[in-house]
């Protein structure tokens, strides 16, 4: 019996030393303590099942995972090819027929230490006492080893003296550029967060709320700036909508889309007002609990798991896209009236198709974005939107649609104005007065300029973000790494540092709101004054009747 047990142990050890996967395929432990490894840190190692408690006293995988994750930056920079297997064999020991954890071999520990201790010392960290290689057995039949490990002739650590990667004021050299490595302070678990820097996507990584591009003073200024214009936009759009409600018969097609345009901008402005009032509570996620004594930072909200952020995004995106479509419908109805001589009854007969396009298309796009989880917090405005930290989403869901809507609107607008000029020429040739027609043309022209110019400026600002965002992120990661103590290597090879221009963002938000503010221009007339007089007279009459 002893001989069989020794042979079984020998088979296990040989499997661990020479071909780790064969252990689970050939030996089935009888103690029923094997558990599938669930911690991402050790998912891709040669074995898949572990036994708890481990040699450090952790009783659960979650407990061991919280501690082992502090070595994640060392794995990222690949200071030793044996580090991950060594750490996993300690924190998540391979499950065998033994009822106790199987330790790593001393040579595996020394190989990991030899590759990474020099890096740790440059950062001011010592090799942990609880990972002292002397406590592990020499290469034997009962320890975990990498069969490809080569025992060096010297125990001297590698020479890092020729490096030039700057960290904490100390010059350190890495064998290559590792790009962006997510600091443990930015890591957000179980939220499907990710951060893309320089073409490299770091999963479970969030953007810090108060360190992205602009300092806190600029963020505070932007909140006040956007909130002020949003309140003015609310007041103007509300006046336009109320004017329509007290005299609905006055606004027929082709003018009625202006009312729906104002309704959309009213909802957009209300969303920004909510963001102004909420501060950081919606656009930012509170920091999670410290890990291994390391405090986390507040990160920018991503995805759809935060309900207030999702609701605010839905309102803002849906009505902003709907406003652009109502602009296209407005220019289309002007063209139908002026170019094709349609009466307001004929245009109104097709109003159901206008509403279908104006509300269904933004709804489909909103649902698509929610399904993809492309919702980001905006630290400058306090709201959530799409494409704030993802240029692909910005291009596909914001920039391209706005360009398409603007082009269609300009085509219909130009065609309608050309038709009005032809009608004016004919009327003058016949000796008919053209005063009313000329006033209408001037009003259409002024309103069109007040919409198209801000829309073009917004598109220009979005193109500016689209073309420069990746460079901004690379420069940000370098600045962040140099100025903060995050224990990660800094990106190398940056030839030119680029940073976003704060005034351009402020202009963009102003142009978002200016159309809503100027939407009431169309109703600035004596008819509006008369409508409000009639309304107040009705109120007085009702009050007198009650008295």
Write a short abstract of this structure:
The protein has about 550 residues and is mostly helical. It has helices spanning about 1-20, 20-25, 60-70, 70-75, 85-90, 105-120, 215-245, 255-280, 305-340, 345-350, 350-370, 390-430, 435-485, 500-520, 525-545, and strands at about 35, 50, 165, 170, 195, 200-205, 285, 300, 375, 385. A two-stranded antiparallel ribbon has the order 1-2. The chain has a two-stranded antiparallel ribbon with strand order 3-4.
Structural summary, described in words:
With 547 residues, the protein is mainly alpha-helical. It has 2 domains: 2-157, Frizzled cysteine-rich domain (Orthogonal Bundle), CATH 1.10.2000.10; 203-539, Rhopdopsin 7-helix transmembrane proteins, CATH 1.20.1070.10. It has helices at residues 2-18, 21-26, 61-68, 72-77, 83-91, 106-122, 216-246, 257-278, 307-338, 344-348, 351-372, 391-429, 435-483, 502-518, 526-546; strands spanning 35-36, 49-50, 165-167, 170-172, 194-197, 200-203, 284-285, 299-300, 376-377, 384-385. Strand 5 and strand 6 (200-203) form a beta hairpin. It is elongated. Mean pLDDT is 80; it is low at 1-27 and 149-176.
- Total domain modules: 2
Within CATH, the superfamily of the largest domain carries the name Rhodopsin 7-helix transmembrane proteins
User: Which range best describes the helical content: under 10%, 10-25%, 25-40%, 40-55%, 55-70% or over 70%?
Assistant: 55-70%
How far apart are the termini?
A: 108 Å
């Amino acid at each position: 019996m002893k001989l069989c047990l020794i042979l079984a142990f020998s088979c296990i050890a040989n499997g661990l030393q020479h071909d780790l996967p064969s252990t689970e395929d050939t030996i089935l432990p009888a103690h029923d303590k094997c558990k599938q490894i669930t911690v991402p840190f050790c998912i891709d190692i040669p074995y898949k099942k572990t036994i708890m408690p481990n040699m450090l006293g952790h009783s659960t995988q979650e407990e061991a995972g919280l501690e082992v994750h502090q070595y994640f930056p060392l794995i990222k920079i690949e200071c030793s090819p044996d580090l991950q297997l060594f750490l996993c064999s300690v924190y998540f020991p391979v499950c065998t027929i033994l009822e106790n954890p199987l330790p790593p071999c001393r040579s595996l520990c020394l190989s990991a230490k030899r590759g990474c201790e020099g890096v740790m010392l440059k950062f001011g960290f010592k090799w942990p006492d609880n990972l002292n290689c002397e406590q592990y057995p020499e290469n034997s039949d009962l320890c975990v080893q990498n069969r490809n490990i080569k025992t060096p002739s010297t125990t001297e650590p590698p020479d890092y003296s020729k490096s030039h990667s700057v960290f904490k004021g100390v010059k350190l050299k890495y064998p290559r550029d590792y790009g962006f490595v997510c600091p443990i302070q930015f890591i957000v678990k179980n939220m499907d967060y990710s951060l893309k820097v320089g073409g490299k996507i770091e999963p479970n990584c969030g953007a810090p709320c108060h360190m992205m591009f602009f300092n806190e003073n600029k963020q505070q200024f932007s909140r006040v700036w956007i909130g002020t214009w949003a309140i003015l936009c609310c007041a103007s759009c509300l006046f336009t909508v109320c004017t329509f409600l007290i005299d609905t018969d006055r606004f027929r097609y082709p003018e009625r889309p202006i009312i729906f345009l104002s309704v959309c901008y009213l909802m957009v402005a209300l969303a920004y007002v909510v963001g102004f009032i909420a501060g950081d509570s919606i656009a930012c996620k509170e920091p999670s609990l410290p890990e291994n004594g390391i405090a986390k930072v507040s990160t920018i909200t991503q995805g759809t798991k935060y309900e207030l952020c999702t609701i605010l995004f839905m309102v803002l995106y849906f009505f902003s896209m709907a406003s652009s479509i109502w602009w296209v419908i407005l220019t289309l109805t002007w063209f139908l009236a002026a170019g094709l001589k349609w009466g307001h009854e004929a245009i109104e007969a097709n109003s159901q198709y206008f509403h279908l396009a104006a509300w269904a298309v933004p709804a489909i796009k909103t649902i698509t974005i929610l399904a993809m989880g492309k919702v980001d917090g905006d630290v400058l405005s306090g709201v959530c939107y799409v494409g704030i930290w993802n240029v692909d989403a910005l291009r596909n869901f914001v920039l391209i649609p706005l360009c398409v809507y603007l082009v269609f609107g300009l085509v219909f607008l130009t065609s309608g104005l050309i038709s009005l000029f032809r009608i004016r020429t004919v009327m003058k040739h016949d000796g008919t007065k053209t005063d009313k027609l000329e006033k209408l043309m001037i009003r259409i022209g002024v309103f069109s300029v007040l919409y198209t110019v801000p829309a073009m400026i917004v598109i220009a600002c979005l193109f500016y973000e689209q073309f420069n965002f990746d460079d901004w992120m690379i420069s940000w990661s370098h600045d962040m790494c140099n100025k903060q103590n995050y224990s990660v290597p800094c990106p190398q090879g940056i030839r030119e540092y680029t940073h976003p221009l704060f005034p351009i963002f402020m202009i963009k938000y102003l142009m978002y709101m200016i159309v809503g503010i100027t939407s009431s221009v169309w109703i600035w007339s004596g008819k509006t004054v008369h409508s409000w007089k009639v309304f107040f007279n009705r109120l007085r009459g009702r009050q007198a009747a009650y008295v």
